[in-house]
Amino acid sequence: FKHINFSVSVYSLLSPFSLVLSAQVAAIPLSRVTLNALVDPLRREIGATMKFQEGRGDNCRIDINGTVALGNHLLTIKDLKAVTGDSTLFVTGTVQNCFSSPLIGRFNINSPSFVIGEILPCLKVFRDIGKTNLGDEEDGGEEGGLLHLLDIKVDADLSFDHITYKNVNISNVEASCEISKDVFKLSSLEGDLGDGSIQLNGFFREGTTEPEYGFSLTGKELNLVSLVSALFPEFEGEVGGITDLTFELTGSGTTKESL
């Protein structure tokens, strides 16, 4: 990685030993990554806590802790917890071909709370890191973010107690997704919205000047009063009733205003 400054400290040469890594990302002024790890070579396990704090005002801070095991080019995520704001993810799974390509991942992801407005700033930060450290055009690299530049294939099953966007809360969400090169595809998402239900399919694509996305949503027995007041709090007209609906959302960029 270019433009990332590292410092590493190792405490005790006995097994297991502790390792502390601190990194500053030049592309994100004042940003810092701190990793504290307990490495057990005999068991081929690493227990780690990592904190990422960006310093330019995008409000992206991520705390990660968990345990991974490595053997025969297979990385096993035994338990991993990632937290930013009120959003929390729990991850288990495997990554094949750790020292070659393509990386092939299979994950189970669970979350008690996932706030989209908190996740978007972090997507922007990681995209900028990927462009600066992996794909500077002026250095002969490619334009694009991390997904565009990594040779990776991922399948994941997802389960969320709550997903929040603005004042909309979707509960009991079950979904599956896949990542291949620079495209994230979401399929089979189903959840409850008030007394109604929704189904969602869509994609997120990197590798362009701005990331692109498109989603198609179908809702059944949705309360219009609750839905309109949540999505459009400044709306002063009168609505009412229960409805079924279908709509599509497309756009580009990484800010809430672009959605």
Task: Describe the protein's architecture and organization.
By secondary structure, the protein is mostly beta strands. It contains three helices and 14 strands. The protein has helices at residues 116-134, 146-149, 224-231; strands spanning 4-11, 17-25, 32-40, 45-53, 61-71, 74-84, 87-96, 103-115, 152-165, 168-180, 183-193, 196-205, 212-223, 242-252. The chain has a 14-stranded mixed β-sheet with strand order 1-2-3-4-5-6-7-8-9-10-11-12-13-14. The longest helix is centred in the middle third of the chain and has 19 residues, at 116-134. The radius of gyration is 20 Å and the shape is elongated. 15% of the residues are buried. The model is unreliable at 134-145 (pLDDT under 50).
Short description:
Helices cover 12% and strands 58% of the residues.
Topology overview:
Elements lengths: L3 E8 L5 E9 L6 E9 L4 E9 L7 E11 L2 E11 L2 E10 L6 E13 H19 L11 H4 L2 E14 L2 E13 L2 E11 L2 E10 L6 E12 H8 L10 E11 L7
Parallel strand pairs: 8-9
Antiparallel strand pairs: 1-2, 2-3, 3-4, 4-5, 5-6, 6-7, 7-8, 9-10, 10-11, 11-12, 12-13, 13-14
